[in-house]
Amino acid sequence: MTGSIVAMAFSVLFGTGLLYFFLVTRGALIANAFVPRAQDRFHVYWVYSNMRLIKFSDRKTWVAAVLLFQYDRLVDKVVSEIRRASINGKTFLMTSCAFGDVMPKVVKALVRGGAGHICISDLIGNELIHAGKKLNEFHGKFELAEADATCMPKDDGTVDINLIFFLFHELPDESKKLAFSEAARLTAPGGKLIIAEFHRPRKRIMRFLGCMYFTVFEPFALSMWGQYDPVHCLEGMGGWTCERATYFFGNFQVVTATKTA
Ligand SMILES: C[S@@+](CC[C@H](N)C(=O)[O-])C[C@H]1O[C@@H](n2cnc3c(N)ncnc32)[C@H](O)[C@@H]1O
């Protein structure tokens, strides 16, 4: 009896969580197709634009669950790649905010390493306000900038280290292409572009489950497994050497690309 009550409570909780996740991600894309919205942000989930939803949803456990509990490993890798790029005096850009503690960890490493300039940009003002609060302890040591990853208001070759953490899979394909070329344009010769993203899993069962998940919740993500694979895109542009580390049966990747020319 107690067992079935616990099982029922768990099912209700799990079902409610899935429904909430659907509404704030895919639900937003469906609604945005009907409600007039600026063309450059019709792809943005409500969970990133509404301040109440941002505050409610920015919980590390939730983000970690979406990333199959690989979040800490991915963040650790990103931070170690930033440190490896020798930070002192360098110009750093994080193109788009992210939930969890990736921003505080990255900014802490940058401040300690003596970065010359730290900028965090995002398309959505509320995300930047929220980021500012999360980074309160580093007040005055970073800049927040409202900017679209597909047309960045920065000069060519002005960024030494550019971090893009799980943004590409949320962009429509045409925007992915523009965001890759903007990231390439901004990076200084010898500079690093660090990309954390989904990757095509090695196991067929994981590809099947991943395919179902993306089809239901994140329809722009599947092309990250093929045409918009970061290494494929950057090497296709020429002038980049890429190193890739994959995680959890190949489900995730951190790519560190160095601009050679
Ligand atoms: C980086 S992705 C989410 C990553 C992951 N789900 C997480 O939170 O860890 C979400 C961010 O991308 C931003 N974003 C979406 N489209 C963008 C664009 N074209 N340019 C800049 N930022 C964008 C959203 O406003 C949001 O803050």
TrEMBL record:
The chain crosses the membrane at residues 6-24, 208-228. Keywords: Membrane, Transmembrane, Transmembrane helix. It comes from the Bacteria. InterPro entries: SAM-dependent_MTases_sf (IPR029063). This is Methyltransferase domain-containing protein.
